[in-house]
Amino acid sequence: MNEELMNKATSQKCTQVEHVFSILDKKWMGLIVEVLLEGPQRYKDIAAKIPTISDRILVERLKELADNDILVRDVYPDSQVRVEYSLTEKGYSLKNVMSEVHIWADKWMD
């Protein structure tokens, strides 16, 4: 019985890790999170900081991050509508993860 519970717990942890990687493993996701770690950004500012990403993909990735509660899209109804993207608490908690990924990459990637 104990072994069965351990296998179930291990399986659940693996599923959670796989879900995280299924989100962050997509091209541009890490860079978008990195840009938003600097603070709230307008769409054009994110696009300017990642100039090789297409508009279609940027829109798609922002929506995916919002759907996973990693970022929020705030609309400010000024004279011209202003939209800003910012990390949620969940998204901002990726800061240490991203830092560790950079350390690992610096050590092991050519």
Features:
110 residues; Arc Repressor Mutant, subunit A; three-stranded antiparallel sheet; 6 helices; Helix-turn-helix domain-containing protein; DNA binding; transcription regulation; DNA-binding; HTH_HxlR
Question: What's this entry about, in short?
Answer:
By secondary structure, this protein is an alpha+beta fold.
Topology:
Elements: H1 2-24, H2 29-37, E1 41-42, H3 43-49, H4 55-67, E2 71-77, E3 81-87, H5 89-92, H6 95-108
Structural description of this entry:
This protein has 110 residues and is α+β, with helices and mostly antiparallel strands. It has a single domain (27-108), classed as Arc Repressor Mutant, subunit A, CATH 1.10.10. 64% of the residues lie in helices and 15% in strands. The protein is built from six helices and three strands, in the order ααβααββαα. The protein has helices at 2-24, 29-37, 43-49, 55-67, 89-92, 95-108, and strands spanning 41-42, 71-77, 81-87. Strands 1-3-2 form a three-stranded antiparallel sheet. A hairpin with a 3-residue loop joins β2 (71-77) and β3 (81-87). It is globular. The N and C termini lie far apart (46 Å).
